[in-house]
Every structure is written in structure tokens, then in C-alpha cells.
Amino acid sequence: MDQKLAILAEAGQPGMSISYVARRHGISPSLVFGWRRRMAEGGIEAVRADDEVVARSEVRELEKRIRELERVLGKKTLENEILRWPLQLSLHRFVVFRRLGLSFLYEVL
After folding, report:
1. Closest of 27, 2, 29 to residue 18, by C-alpha
2. At 71, is the pLDDT very low, low, confident or very high (cuts 50, 70, 90)?
3. Of 18, 19, 21, 108, which is least packed with CB atoms within 10 Å of its CB?
4. With 0-12 CB in 10 A as exposed, 13-18 as middle and 19+ as buried, what is 38?
5. Same domain for 77 and 34
6. Could you list the residue range(s) of the whole structural domain that residue 20 is in?
7. In sequence order, which ranges of the chain are alpha helices (DSSP H)?
8. What is the pLDDT of residues 3-21, one digit of tens each?
9. Can you tell me whether residue 82 is helix, strand or coil?
10. Are 1 and 45 contacting, i.e. CB atoms less than 8 angstroms apart?
């Protein structure tokens, strides 16, 4: 981690190019460019985590969307349970009537 920061500091010195510093350390210039971009977007922590930086507002928006989807999922699950109950009752009746040999009564009901 400290090596990444040292490479970035070296590449940021006057007269040094990222490509030259990357070659000197045996790494891809695109890697150093990515570290530099992360440093500009999120500072040292973003470079250490080697991860993309996401705006806090975007995180809040996505969390809000997750809560909404969870609410809808819960509602649909409840609807499913409510609709399944009459079907199960109907199937149970059919089985009971068939076992008693009363299939003609089931058709009338």
C-alpha cells in the first residue's frame, strides 16, 4: 500500500512521467493512471482499498432503492401466501372427496 503511494508521489514529481515510473517499477502504466484517478476521487483510502469511489448521494439512492425493492418483495410474498391458501384448501377437498369416492360431489360443489 505504501508502495502505491510512493509510486504516485514519484510520478507526481516535476519532470517524471507516469509511463517512465511504471516501467521503472515493472508495472503497467494504466495501473498507475488508475491509482492516480482513485487518489483524485477518494484520496489515500481509495488507493489503499484499490476500489472505485462512489459518491455518498449515490450510495444513499441505492440504499433507498434496496429498501423499496425489499418492501415490494415482502408485499408480493404476502400476496402469494394469501392466494396459495385457497388453492391448498381446494386441493385438500379434492383429495378427501376422491378418497371417499365422492368425486361427483366435488364437481357439484
Report:
1. 29
2. very high
3. 108
4. buried
5. no
6. 2-49
7. 2-11, 18-25, 29-42, 44-49, 56-99, 103-108
8. 888 888 888 888 888 888 8
9. helix
10. no
